[in-house]
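Extended Data, panel c. Modelled sequence:
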Amino acid sequence: MRAHRFAVIATVATMTLGIAACGKSGTPTAPGNANASGGAAAGTGDTCTTSGVTLMPATDVKLTGSPTYDRVKSAGKVVIGVKADQPNLGYKDANGKRCGFDIEIAQLVAAKLGIDKSKIEYKEIPSANRETSIKGGEIDYYVGTYSITDKRKADVGFAGPYFIAGQDLLVRADDTSITGKDTLHGKKVCSATGSTPLQRVRDQKLTEDSNISEFKTYSECVSQLLDKRIDAVTTDDAILKGYAAQNPAKLKVVGKPFSTEKYGIGLPRDDKALRNFVNDVLAAAAQDGTWQKIYNGTLGRSGSPASPPPLERY
């Protein structure tokens, strides 16, 4: 049943956000590859498409006082933390190609650091491990629907925001009982381990703790929803709209956002020089139209318009 559900969800992933193989928190799986049980991965047959924006590596990088940049320059490559199961945001297709809004924003920053796309090493970091990966130097920076919060600022730095979303609910199309966050009591709700949406459900006591399910990625939550094991999936509306668009006969987004999620680029906390540099990169991309072209050719295909948000430098 689960394999069948994944196959249904994956059919339209070239146009909207989609899914990839995943497992319960603590179960290692690789999105875009075979899943842990040996079955075919969700997304097999999907092909990445990009915005077509040309990103040439800078040859006159002026960045001093950044230990991260010094390491990147010495290594001749950059290691970027990403997600891999969200087409048009951060996705890895069946051929191993990566694409999406977050991926191209990550590539934009790399280019401005003087690094060609061929010299980017991507690491798929689960939501719960992002701070640890940045603090431990496993990655140079992270781009993957990473909400800026004061709590996270105590551990890592952020440039941005480069996009603003809002938490919403994905339910079955025939469900009329869930009309917003205040109708979740007694309902089974699912989200990704370590995510801001999951924490908000707990903090606001939107449903009982016993009704909360968490998985490594949102893909498994969607499968659970289709199998009627849960009643709602909650995360940012940009992600949920894609899942609903893939299977509109069975899924819908409630359409009552109840948060503001400011996506930032996660950086080492004390590397202020790099944070200022990346903010300048984002500001220039907003000014010259690069941001809009990347958005229109990736996440904008979901039908949801957007424009560059103002930066929050600190």
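The CA atoms of residues 107 and 182 lie 40 Å apart. This feature is highlighted in the accompanying rendering.
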